[in-house]
Amino acid sequence: MTGPSILTTLATIALCLTAVAVTALILLASYRASLKRHPYTDCRRCKGTGERRSRLFANSFGYCPDCTGTGNKPRLGARLLNVR
Ligand SMILES: [Zn+2]
After folding, report:
1. How far does residue 50's CA lie from ligand 1's centre (Å)?
2. What angle do CA 41, 43, 46 make, to 5 degrees?
3. What is the mean pLDDT of the segment spanning 44-60?
4. How far is the CA of 63 from the centre of ligand 1 (A)?
């Protein structure tokens, strides 16, 4: 039997790996650009309001301890990749 030569096979594998690497790089670069432009997300515990309502008294509230009342938290990627 005469299949493709070992060189052709290796070249195909190298080409595929390069394509995957380039795609991953482009995705990472666009994700990083998104983090740079929008580094914050809504705080989950107060849903971005920055305040915590009392369970007992409906009108009383305090600042959210998670986001210290800002309602914003840094996105996961911004914390992990240290994007400022
Ligand atoms: Zn909060």
Report:
1. 5
2. 150
3. 91
4. 8
Question: How many domains would you assign to the chain?
Answer: 2
Handedness of CA 16, 20, 21, 23 (dihedral sign): positive
CA of 72 to the centre of ligand 1 (A): 7
pLDDT at res. 58: 87
Domain span at residue 62 reads 41-74
Same domain? For 33 and 1 the reply is: yes
Q: How far is the CA of 54 from the centre of ligand 1 (A)?
A: 14
Task: Judge whether residue 84 has pLDDT over 80.
Answer: no
Question: How far, in Å, from the CA of 46 to the mean position of ligand 1?
Answer: 4
User: What is residue 74's three-state secondary structure?
Assistant: strand
Separation of CA 29 and ligand 1 centre (Å)? 29
Per-residue model confidence (pLDDT) at position 1: 63
Q: Identify whether 30 is part of a domain.
A: yes
Q: Is residue 84 part of a domain?
A: no
In a domain? residue 4: yes
